Amino acid sequence: MKPFKKHKIEYLSPSMINQFVECPALTMLKIMGITDGEAGPSAWRGTAVEKSLTNLAYKPDLEIGDLFENADNVFTDLTDNAEEQHSVEKINQEKQDIPAFIKSGYLFYKNLGVPEDSQKRIELWTEDFDIPIIGYYDFLYKDSVRDMKTGKSRSSIASGHARQSSIYGYALRKTPFVDYVSKTKVASFQVHAVERHIQEFIRIAKTLENILSISDDIRECCQFVPYPNIEHWMFGSTTRKAIMDIWQ
Length: 248
Description:
Elements: H1 3-6, H2 14-22, H3 24-31, H4 41-58, H5 64-80, H6 88-111, E1 117-124, E2 133-140, E3 144-150, H7 159-172, E4 175-181, E5 186-190, H8 194-212, H9 218-222, H10 237-246
Parallel strand pairs: 3-4
Antiparallel strand pairs: 1-2, 2-3, 4-5
């Protein structure tokens, strides 16, 4: 049995590979089923904004006030159904920021045209692995596939986002774009050199596969990734505790 299936990995995803580049130890812990739990206020804000702007893309006549209300309802629902305690200050700040993100993206998605589809899964098989690459794009148009990112403004596309969107573009035979929606503007970038990004994805995935091939014991495999920086922002209390157990 090949390494991925041996360690019960049924598919690869752009988010998994990007996480492995950013923080290899966290990927190993996730393979073991060790995570820090649910998403927090920043993710809720992103979900609320993305859902409202998706509604706008399909219904460009929607008033901006309707989008504010829709996003507020989504954010409130996610907050009310949270199972963990989160900073009230952080929750209030993210909620207050929602209108600025929607205002920023309003004209862009209003005028982009009605998408053919949205929020759908793609599955890509390559000769390099015995499991598929699976991802979810945001918008599909006649000639393009687009991924929306909400957060800080960017002047260029992040390499991880380029890899991610290249997967979508390659699988769907569409031109990939990444749209960064910040509180002040939308910065949209076409992804070029799609095949180069695909090959980069494959090389990174093969590095992970090689580490997992070392042993049937995932804890032993962990010793072959760089020693984790326990202060990295991606670690929470649960994963920090696991690091102390596995790498000490």
